[in-house]
TrEMBL record:
GO terms for cellular component: SAGA complex; transcription factor TFIID complex. This is Transcription initiation factor TFIID subunit 1. It is found in: Nucleus. Pfam families: TAF10 (PF03540). It comes from Nematocida displodere. Its main location: nucleus.
Length: 108
């Protein structure tokens, strides 16, 4: 990243209002063993987390649409258009983002 890009991001952080509350960031920082009172660092971490959440949600939605299209081929007329994301959709989206979650093959 060159200096001009860094400066634009740095200036943009002043006007950015994060969606993730600062209390949540402080909790995550504490769990990770970090401590910082720098508001720009907190805003930057919040921005990155917000981007990750958005990307995962968008990918999970796309996986759901693909699965829904496959199931619609079997049925002629869908009754509901209600969206229900499954854990499999989110799992695939997280895997695409490089996050691996492990769950048991069966539940008791």
């Amino acid at each position: 990243m060159d200096d001009s890009t860094f400066n634009r991001i740095n200036e943009g952080l002043d006007s950015f209002s994060p969606l993730i509350p600062e209390v949540v960031l402080d909790f995550c920082f504490t769990k990770a063993g970090l401590s910082s009172d720098d508001p720009k660092l907190k805003k930057l971490v919040s921005l990155v987390a917000q981007k990750l959440i958005t990307d995962v949600a968008t990918s999970a939605y796309q996986y759901h649409k693909i699965a829904q299209r496959a199931s619609l081929k079997e049925k002629k007329a869908p009754k509901e258009k209600k969206l229900t994301l499954t854990l499999t959709d989110v799992e695939n989206a997280l895997k695409e983002a490089g996050v691996s979650i492990a769950r048991p093959a069966y539940f008791l």
